[in-house]
Amino acid sequence: MQKKSLPSLRTLQVFASFGHTESVSKTAQELDVTPGAVSQQLKLLETQVGRALFLRRGRTLSLRPEAKLYHKMLLDGIEALNCAQSFIEDYESSAQLRISALPSLLSKWLYPALGRFQDRHPGVPISMDATNSEPERPLPARMFRLTYGDLSDAYTHKEALFTDVVFPVCAPSLAAANPDFLTPEGLRRAPLLHVDWGAEFASVPNWDDWFRAQGTTIDPDVGSTRMALSSQAVEAAIDGRGVALVQTSFAHRDLQLRRLVRLSDTTLDLPHPYCLCWDEAGDADPLMQAFLDWVRNEAHRLAGQIRNLPPPPYSP
After folding, report:
1. Pick from 57, 103, 144, 295: most CB atoms within 10 A?
2. Which residue, 92, 123, 145, sits at the end of a domain?
3. Rounded Cα distance, 45 and 52, in Å
4. Least confident window among 34-38, 113-117, 263-267, 295-299
């Protein structure tokens, strides 16, 4: 049986509004037209679909059961149309790349490396947003989200970049003054810098996990400091304020610059990778593809650093 032609967009728009209000007068008010025009479009829709959609009791109209389901499915389609329109308008009006990322990952890994991308693509405007909150979906055109683990499942496209590890670090001067910090028992007496990642990142190893892996526990009598961001803990460690349990992506530059030193060969793996996510077909956009290729290369570079961390300073 040959399918009927789709109803006109105008009749569908009127029906979508009426499905919310189930009132001709309220629909007319919402669409800024006359009630007669609304009634005419609803009758036309029934003609176009070839079946009754409304129950009529005098002047009152209500949706038939099958029409309620039709209305719900129609709203999904209208939302997709609106998203498509917003996408094309946004795509044509802006050539900039937008990057939303977890704050410490952005400030300690992505941003310091971004100059290498800009050297290859001078003049490309880039806007960055450091936030733990996942952006509203769908993402706008030419926007990426750099996030962790299962949070990436919310996006249409995702790519795992690297799986990090954690290990204890401190300032070289603090390690030199406290050589016993190079042992698990000595670290129990160190001023520890803790990071409260929040419930969504509870699986990231913390100090309790690290000491448990050493067969011991945190000394409850030793003072400690709690911080909201890993980047804050890294900076506090550089300043000599304590020992931080850090990820390679947050500390690799400071290890290279000798602003931090490792205190143990032991590392703990993060249970999930960091992922780059997007909601449109990046392969079809040269600018997005260029950024994807660059990020893959940077992630490969970092993976090598994760495998080849500098050893602890056994002779501080």
Report:
1. 144
2. 92
3. 9
4. 34-38
In tens, the pLDDT along 137-173 reads 888 888 999 999 999 999 999 999 999 999 999 999 9
Closest alpha carbon to 108 in 191, 14, 231: 231
Which distant-in-sequence residues (6+ apart) come within 8 Å of 69 by Cβ? Answer: none
Dihedral, 259, 264, 270, 274 alpha carbons, nearest 10: 20
What is the rounded distance in angstroms from the CA atom of residue 202 to the CA atom of residue 179?
31
The dihedrals phi and psi of 276, each to the nearest 5 degrees, come to -105, 130
Do both 201 and 103 map to the same domain?
yes
CB 129 within 8 Å of CB 144: no
Q: Which two tokens stand for residue 264?
A: 């143990």
Same domain, 168 and 295: yes
Q: Which helix or strand (DSSP H or E) is residue 224 part of?
A: strand 224-227
CA dihedral 194, 199, 205, 209 (to 10 degrees): 80
Rg (Cα) of the chain, in Å, rounded?
Answer: 29
Q: Residue 166 corresponds to which tokens in the numbers above?
A: 């954690």
Predicted TM-score of the model (pTM): 0.69
201: domain CATH number?
3.40.190.290
Residue type for position 76: D
Asked whether residue 4 is assigned to any structural domain, the reply reads no
Give 59's DSSP letter: T
Per the CB < 8 A criterion, the answer to whether 11 and 78 are in contact is no
